[in-house]
Amino acid sequence: MNDKASLEAKLAAVAEAGLPGAKGRALRGDSHTALMAAVLREIDALVLPRTLTIDGAGGRRIRCEVTGRRLLRVYGDAGGAHRTLEGRDLDGGEDTLAGELGAYFEAAFGDLREIHARVSPLEREVGPADPGISAGALADAWGLTLAGPIADGAVIDSFLAELGEATQAWRLIGGDDCASAGDSAALDRLEGMAAEALLPPDDSGVMTALALSDGGDTVIAARADGMTLLAALPPGSATHAAAVWRRVAG
Amino acid sequence: MTAMDELEALRAQADGVETAAFVDHASGTVLCAAAAMDPPQERLDAFCAHAAELLETAAGGAEMAIRLTAVETLLIFRTPGRAEEALCVVAAPGADIAALEVAGRATAAALAR
Questions:
Q1: Is A185 at the interface with chain B, CB within 8 A?
Q2: Which residues pair with A26 in a beta bridge?
Q3: Pairing label, strands A177-182, A25-29
Q4: Which of B2, B36, B35, B21 is nearest to B79 (CA)?
Q5: Could you say which residues of chain A have pLDDT below 70?
Q6: Residue B18: which of B65, B75, B56 has the closest Cα?
Q7: Which pTM does this prediction carry?
Q8: How far is A183 from chain B (nearest CA, A)?
Q9: Is residue A85 within 8 Å of A78, Cβ to Cβ?
């Protein structure tokens, strides 16, 4: 069994066992556009050669080969007109490519508001012969911003970045925009909470950390620059999160 | 030590503590408070409201809350074994949060005895 087959066998076993995280990180959006913005942010975060596997309800799946923040190839179950994209070397120089890819993703996930993303090493060599199309170019073509709803929330952005991978899930609200990502169960718990109830009204640059009872998660609510954040962290993280907030919020 | 002694000891031990209050947030009663200057009644009432808001918001409740604003650092500790009682600690914005957590947890435990 080669490495790829071995990895797929392990993932299948984990999925069958129903263990947390088997489906990957949940990406949620209140529209297909918001979901695609989340997918592009995932691509934009990948510098090394990686396979980004995106799963949706009903067994729908697209595998994206990515390196240097560029989408190199896609594989999935799309039929008909979209089949021409399967396994093709993508080239951002093609005028119609962004539109084709937009239709490709919409055909697969257009009716979904939650998908799951997993990242694994890319099992082939890539080089200059793989031009790909950058996440930024796709965002421009699709009228999206890679920064998403946190574009104006520098403090919140820095806070999330400093908390790093300890963050189990987050939910960000800015005006009419809402974005969220992370572990599905933690996201469900966050969606049942009102950030406004945890923060002083009409105040900015504020943060509340709750250590939930009985060894439960740490829940963070923060507001700055017109953005409101709810995040779930592991138990015992309240003091650390407060120290991070003080550092980034000044 | 009385509850008041515990609050005074906390103020003496932890730098930057302006007020330490022992509250019953279920009934909205401040059981006792230690402060450099006597806080106004509405400030004491706010401690009870904050404790109720923050400790009871999440399903299952919270054992501790930390709130940071531009003007203060607020820590609230549920008293072990007494779900309706809490210790509220108000400190300066730049206070040492880790030290306050250690001192506050110890005082909350002492208040439960």
A1: no
A2: A116, A182
A3: antiparallel
A4: B21
A5: 1-23, 77-81, 128-129, 147-153, 176
A6: B75
A7: 0.66
A8: 18
A9: yes
